[in-house]
Specification:
The protein is of the alpha+beta class and 74 residues long. The structure holds zinc ion (ZN).
Protein backbone atom coordinates (compact mmCIF):
# COMPACT_ATOMS: atom_id res chain seq x y z
CA UNK A 1 0.00 0.00 0.00
CA UNK A 2 1.55 3.35 -1.05
CA UNK A 3 1.92 6.01 1.70
CA UNK A 4 -0.60 8.35 -0.01
CA UNK A 5 -3.27 5.68 0.25
CA UNK A 6 -2.36 5.05 3.89
CA UNK A 7 -2.77 8.75 4.72
CA UNK A 8 -6.06 8.89 2.80
CA UNK A 9 -7.30 5.79 4.60
CA UNK A 10 -6.35 7.27 7.98
CA UNK A 11 -8.10 10.56 7.19
CA UNK A 12 -11.20 8.66 6.10
CA UNK A 13 -11.24 6.70 9.38
CA UNK A 14 -10.90 9.96 11.31
CA UNK A 15 -13.77 11.53 9.35
CA UNK A 16 -16.00 8.46 9.77
CA UNK A 17 -15.29 8.44 13.52
CA UNK A 18 -16.25 12.11 13.74
CA UNK A 19 -19.49 11.52 11.83
CA UNK A 20 -20.44 8.57 14.06
CA UNK A 21 -19.63 10.54 17.22
CA UNK A 22 -21.67 13.53 16.01
CA UNK A 23 -24.58 11.23 15.15
CA UNK A 24 -24.69 9.67 18.62
CA UNK A 25 -24.23 13.00 20.41
CA UNK A 26 -27.14 14.45 18.40
CA UNK A 27 -29.35 11.46 19.22
CA UNK A 28 -28.69 11.83 22.95
CA UNK A 29 -29.47 15.54 23.13
CA UNK A 30 -32.05 15.57 20.35
CA UNK A 31 -35.17 15.06 22.44
CA UNK A 32 -38.01 17.05 20.97
CA UNK A 33 -39.22 19.63 23.48
CA UNK A 34 -41.73 22.07 22.03
CA UNK A 35 -41.54 25.51 23.55
CA UNK A 36 -44.61 26.45 25.56
CA UNK A 37 -46.46 29.01 23.47
CA UNK A 38 -49.17 29.73 26.03
CA UNK A 39 -51.87 28.62 23.60
CA UNK A 40 -54.28 25.73 24.07
CA UNK A 41 -54.64 23.14 21.31
CA UNK A 42 -58.14 22.17 20.20
CA UNK A 43 -59.33 19.40 17.90
CA UNK A 44 -62.73 19.77 16.30
CA UNK A 45 -65.08 16.84 16.97
CA UNK A 46 -66.94 17.44 13.73
CA UNK A 47 -64.24 18.10 11.11
CA UNK A 48 -61.01 16.94 12.90
CA UNK A 49 -59.46 20.37 12.35
CA UNK A 50 -56.59 21.24 14.72
CA UNK A 51 -56.33 24.83 15.89
CA UNK A 52 -55.12 26.86 18.86
CA UNK A 53 -56.73 29.49 21.04
CA UNK A 54 -55.75 31.49 24.11
CA UNK A 55 -54.85 29.44 27.20
CA UNK A 56 -57.53 31.13 29.33
CA UNK A 57 -60.51 29.81 27.35
CA UNK A 58 -62.35 26.61 28.38
CA UNK A 59 -64.00 25.96 25.03
CA UNK A 60 -63.29 27.39 21.60
CA UNK A 61 -65.10 27.82 18.30
CA UNK A 62 -63.76 25.83 15.34
CA UNK A 63 -62.67 28.27 12.59
CA UNK A 64 -63.63 25.72 9.93
CA UNK A 65 -67.18 24.71 10.88
CA UNK A 66 -68.10 26.82 13.91
CA UNK A 67 -68.58 23.95 16.41
CA UNK A 68 -67.61 24.45 20.08
CA UNK A 69 -64.78 22.13 21.19
CA UNK A 70 -62.90 21.22 24.36
CA UNK A 71 -59.09 21.40 24.50
CA UNK A 72 -56.97 18.37 23.55
CA UNK A 73 -55.55 16.58 26.61
CA UNK A 74 -51.97 15.32 26.06
ZN1 LIG B 1 -64.69 21.99 12.83
Amino acid sequence: MPPQDLILFFLFLLLAGGVIAAFYLRRQSGDFKPEPSGDTVFECDACDHFYTDDSDVERSLCPECGRMNSPVQF
